[in-house]
Amino acid sequence: MLIADARMSLKDIAKECNISSVSVLNRIKRLKKLGVITGATLFTKNNSLGFQITATIGMETNLNREDIMQFFTKHIYLVEPSTSVGVYDLCALVCAEDIASLNEKVELLRRRTGIRKVIVNMWTNFPYFAFDNLDLKINKKEVEK
Q: What is the pLDDT of residues 85-116, one digit of tens each?
């Protein structure tokens, strides 16, 4: 329920689960202590903010992460940067006002010394997070690490 709506009240969760609000609060505290819950994330409708394009940019690079992050912070509307294993050294979820704006930013990135390859994948919609098919049981061995 918290994945669907992180602002859901303890009272509403308790009612749905047929337990007390205190029990819900204690379980949430336990999940925070275990590191399962780390915070809440806001997802906006990008087009309401003037962004028509959501894309993933994959890069092969010799640069360290901090250099790339400084570039992104200065030039590109960055949603999520991530080092990756596989084809790309770094992968970033970005937003752009339109295709021309995205192309301009990607060309800046391609011209940067230390960037060997840049691949762009445009999304048709912002990601839809469907957690219904996940087994959300806590892996105690992982939490204890």
A: 777 888 888 888 889 988 998 898 888 888 88
In the chain, helix, strand, coil percent, each to 5?
Answer: 40, 20, 40
Provide Rg for the chain, Cα atoms: 20
Could you give all domains of the chain from N- to C-terminal order, each with its CATH number?
1-40 (1.10.10.10), 46-123 (3.30.70.920)
What is the model's pTM? 0.58
Phi-psi map region of 9: left, alpha, beta (phi>0 left; psi -120 to 50 alpha): beta
**Which tens digits make up the pLDDT trace of 6-31?**
888 999 999 999 999 999 999 999 88
